[in-house]
Each structure stands twice: as structure tokens, then as C-alpha cells.
Amino acid sequence: MNYLRRRLSDSTFISNLPNGYMTDLQRPDPAQPSPATAAPPKSPTVGSTPPVTSPTPSPAPERKPQPSQSSGAGFFSSITNVVKQTAASAGLVEQSAVTTPKKFKILLVIDEPQQEWAKLFRGKKVHGDYDIKVEQAEFSEINIIAHANGSCNVDMQVLRNGTKVARSFKPDFVLIRQHAFSMTQNEDFRNLIIGLQYGGIPSINSLESIYNLCDKPWAFAQLISTYRKLGAEKFPLIEQTFYPNYKDMVAMPTFPVVVKIGHAHSGVGKVRVDNHSKFQDIASVVALTQTYTTTEPLIDSKYDIRIQKIGNDYKAYMRTSISGNWKTNTGSAMLEQVAMTDRYKLWVDTCSVIFGGLDICAVKAIHGKDGKDYITEVVGSSMPLVGEHQAEDRQLITDMVVAKMNQAVGRTSTGSPNRPTTMQPSQVWCSRLHTPLQGKPRPGVLGAQQTPPAQPAKPAPPRQRNSAPQLQPEFKAPPQASALPQPEPLAQPQNEPTTQAQQKDLSPEQSQPPVVEQPTAEEKAQAHPSLNKSQSLTNAFGLKETSFFRTASEDVAKAETMRNLRKSFASLFSD
After folding, report:
1. Does an H or E element contain 398, and which?
2. How large a percentage of the chain has pLDDT more than 70?
3. Are strands 104-110 and 173-176 parallel, antiparallel or unpaired?
4. How far is 565 from 23, CA to CA, in rounded Å?
5. Which residue(s) pair with 257 in the sheet?
6. Cα angle at 485 between 482 and 490, to 5 degrees?
């Protein structure tokens, strides 16, 4: 065993092992048949293939008694355990590979890296069975390829602790906590929103609402519709004028006004204009931006109001400027939570139904020194969290995402045929071995559950067995028989029908046609005496570099090759 551990610690030896060998070691061996049914005695026929066992002892010195199979299998199982332990300690295979793979759903969170959403979703389940695997990135770090059949691939390249990490996956759900469009630094990711919508990926908020909120004048038009329904008393919307381009900025508004250029956030693109000359100067600047503009009357504000809604949770905040800047979100400001009134609740509930519904939204308003309120805009799931209850708000978002995933995501786990994932070559041909072959009985290891036919089977020519269910001793013909010409194998004659009573006594192995044993690895090694055991072990794994689209005979041959490798591996340390 010490020699084995030293041998397996050599990286050159492990690297020379064929692909998929470690995976095949984890596959359990088939059940061993009893000695009584493994090799039943048969009457010899002229020209037939010699049976596996013979009633007379074989003169070959290599022949071992039948009970030695159990000791050989036990020795091989100990070698297998050593291989797994040594390879796992060397980091060549994962120690958890033998466990059943976990079922999970992939949640794509688009947010800044400072917010670690994976910790919040740890331990959460979808349908009680599926874990939630969080993939977090910003809009600038992902790319999307969507297909008309509903498949959506996301390629992600992020920097984590100075290391560039690249992944490709198929998300089951998306949480968007970042602005999809802003004219600041040309941040336009609306094409990614289109890709997610094209792939049919459910999200919070809905992709339709996120796309509609990418232009503030478009969202303000929805507020105008609500204002007309409820009236100025219940829904006090601020007055606003829209200019599609600089050429229409001719009509003079009432000064002072606030000019908002394009679509931006956090006070960017807002300019205070006090007279006509400054308004003309701003129009010349808008000509360079080639975008739309809106104007609002400047409100002498006492404080700003923010009413947010996350699911069924409501909070209201009041922000007062300390620095005296007319932009309360610029400079120093004091933020405090205020009571949620019915008036505030009506505002946010009314705005949460636009564009098909907003699960996460906030309404911004200004309370002027004249004692009046003015609603200015509505924001969606990209709203920043403020106040002392940010941790509670994140937990509310987490619970809402889990609830939405239970409703929108099916029970098909990621990696199923509906959402395929990358498979190793060994997994491809091993999985195909478990499917029945068309028009042929299952060979060897796959045919253990076959039942004997009720009537005499049609004679068939002998075929090679490409997989052996157990380690059988080698059979060698007597020396005098090797000089004789080898007759062609013949099928069982048809003039000897088998009665039903005899068929019941026959086992599945006896009812199968005669087989021809493949040469073992030791026989191949004896044919090339110049090769050492390592070379014979490598030659025993005779893999051809073909594509994964193989026929059933090639898959069965692959299984036999793996079995021969195991036998050669056991004989390597039997000396």
C-alpha cells in the first residue's frame, strides 16, 4: 500500500490516466452471479466455442480456483479506495464527487459588488427541494444570448479580489437592483433587458416595467394619467413641460425653473435657470447632447419626501438639506423616518400598478414652504435603500424573490434537458449506456434483468461480449489444442427444441448465445514483452479520439475497456 500511495502521488502517473477514469471508479460494480449459475457445465458440441469453464482441470498454471474471485474483488476495492483518497488529497478530484449532486436554481442579481446577496439567499429553498445559487454582477460585466425557444445564456466576467472570474450559465430568475439606462458615461444597457425579455426570464421588477422606466418623461406620462383620474387634491403632481429637442425650447417658462436634460440620476443633468438669457444658454448645451429636455418650476422646499414599497411593506422618509443647496440630495442632509399616512400610501399604491405592476418602487415628492406637496417622479427596483432599516429592507427583498421564484420557476432543475449544462465526456457515454439498445438485447452488465424467453429463441450467430460483469479467471487452451485449426463457431441446431420445463431451469446467462472472450490486458502485455506494466496499463485503455456522437457498440466497447483497465490495474500490484 505504501508503494501504491507513492505511485499515485506522482503527478505524471495521474496525468497519464485516461479521461473519465476517476468517474468510472465511482460507478458501483454489478452484482456477482453465484458460482452455480456463472459457468454451468455443458455438453461439448462439434465446432462450438469452448465453454468458459471445463469439468476437467485445466493444465494451465495461471488458472486459479473460483473462490479467488472474492479475494481479488476485495483487494481491488481496497485499491480503489486508496486511489480515491490519494487523488482527493492531491486535489485532482473533489472529495464530494461521490455525493449526489444538489439540485439548484440560478438567481442572477444585477447590483454593485458591495452588496453580497449570496449571504442573504443562503439556506433558502425553491419548492422545498432546490437550493438558490446566486450569480451577482453589474450590467457592464455581463453579456446575453437569447433564443426564440426560451433559452437564455449569460456570460459573466467579474473581478473578485483582484482575480478575473468568467462564467456562463442559464439564469432561472433575475433581480435587478441597478439602473438599466443613464446618459451619464453612456450607460445604456437596455439591450440586455431586451435579451432577458427575449429569453423569457422572470424578474423583479418585471422586465417590461424596467424598460419603460428607462426614460423619465415616459414614466411621467403615466403619472399624468393618474393625476387626471384622481385629481390634484389626492395626487398632487408637479407641473412639467417636455421639449423633444433644443429647437422647440422657444416658449419661455415662468422663472426660476429647473431644467432636466435627458435621463440621469442622483441630481446629474439638473440645472437651475433664473432668467431668459440663461435659458438660451442651456438650449445651446442641449443642442450638443441631442436629447430631450423637461422643465419644472423651482419649488422653495422645506424637505423632500420619499415613500417606498417593498411587497407589502411601507416606509416613509423625510430628508432636510443642511448645506442649504437647492438640491437636497447634494451636500449634507438629515434623513429621518416619518409616519406612513393614508395620503402617502395612496400615492405609492397608485404608482405601483403602472406598467403591469412594480413589486419594488418609491415615490419622490417635495414639501414646499407653502405647505403643499408636489410629486416629482417614481422609481422602480433600482431605488437605493436609505435609513436605518436597510438590512430589513434587503431581507424583505430576499423573501419576495423566493416567493416569486416559487410561483414563476418550474420544478425542472438546472441541468435537465430543458436547460442543458456542460457534461464531461465520461458522463455522456456512461449515461447512454443506461438506455436500451434498439433491436438488440442488452449485453453483459446491462442484461442482468433479462427474463428467459417463453419459447425457443431464434438461433443467432455468436457475438462478442463487450462487457464482463465480474472478474473471471483467464482461460487458456491446452498446448496440444493450439496446433489444431480453430473451427468456426456454430449456432445451436434447430432440431433440438427445448421444453418449457427445461427453460424454467435455465438462468438468463444460460439462455444467452455463446460468447467469445476478449483478450485480457495481461495477454496483450505478454504479446509485447518489451513493454513495462505502466505502458501495458496505458495500452489497455485504447480510447479513440472520436466525437461524442458514438454508436451503441462503441459505448459498450468503452465500458469493456474500463473493465480491462481495472483488471490491469489490479494485476499491477498483485506481484
Report:
1. helix 390-408
2. 57
3. parallel
4. 13
5. 273, 297
6. 110
